[in-house]
Design a protein that fits this description.
alpha/beta, Rossmann fold, 3 domains, 6-stranded parallel sheet
Length: 409
Amino acid sequence: MSDVPLIAVILDAARPYDRLIIGGIARYVREQDSSWSLYVEEDPLQKLPDLKRWHGHGIIANFDDRRVATAISGLSIPIVGVGGGSGWFDLGSSIPYVFTDNQAIGRLGAAHLLSCGFDQLAYYGYPKTATAGWSEERAEAFAEACREAGRPCHVHTGRHANVRRWQEIQQDLCDWIRGLPKPIGLMACNDVRARHVLEACRTLAVRVPHDVAVLGVDNDEMICELTNPPLSSIDQAARRIGYEAATLLDRMIKGGVAAAAHARVVVPPIGVVSRTSTDAMATSDEAVVATLQRLRATPLLKPDIAAIADALCLSRPTLEARFKAVVGRSIHDESVRLRVAAIGRLITQTDMPLKTISARAGFSSVQYMTTFLHRHTGSTPGRLRMVERRLVEQSPREDDVAAGEGGSR
């Protein structure tokens, strides 16, 4: 029998979110020079290894699927769960679990739409089910952020989730959108649901983003780039979920199951990837529009708020008050949000040296930039680059994934 650890990755490779998780697992294997043989199949259950004959060393599985959770329950080998924070994972279990920070996603979506100046906001999710708790959590966080900003929030789930009920979904959605106040900023629970919104807007001849600005979640590039207009979306760091899961499993294999027992890792989103569907400013306050344009034009730099106010022939307190009334945050808080996002993009999407990035962002050293990022994101530049940067957006390469017993590449 080979000494190479056999690891079953029980995820749905047909889903973009799961594929990115698999990519994060493969990246961990490459970077740590771990000699794992990964069993990865397209069907999350039917092509499970025969667990009575498969002499595997560990499993990473999506507990959003009850069939998968049932199939691997009771096994004595190390197991790490991944998912959206709901579904069929027993929170009292000793199995480690890596999941999405749905509260952060909901609040991030609200912050992005508020920064576009919308007085009205909406959220479109899935009907309540045992596995759709993540959508409800995002809705609650989105609505809470709206309340804190003094903005109304319109929440809708519809009656159907299965796309085989396409006509019913679209009719229900059109009825809802028709009755919404305009203009409005709308967040969908994921990119699939956001695509439904865009189609309903097309049917109703509602302008996107001028009448309805639409934001999704997942940053599924196939959907985001092919929709009309291209869809803005939140990157929820699926690759990092895979990377963290592989880290925990490796620790368990080397140190025993107790090495990571009861571990819970909540992964925050990377940020909003802005495209045309939210490229709008829904306010008639020209001073606020000008201020936002200034902040967005130079997001890496701290703004001189007094100079901006002077240029607009306003006192600083007046500008601050008008800005907060429209955006729901102070100019300082909005500039910090934009600065964190801009620095994160340079770290994760380029090979630019950290010293160069820190200088461009107005820091005197990488250390100061590291302190700034850790305070606002809980992570460091080095870890962001190692885990989350987009090198090649694809499934693991053939030489990254070796089939386990009974598996295929």
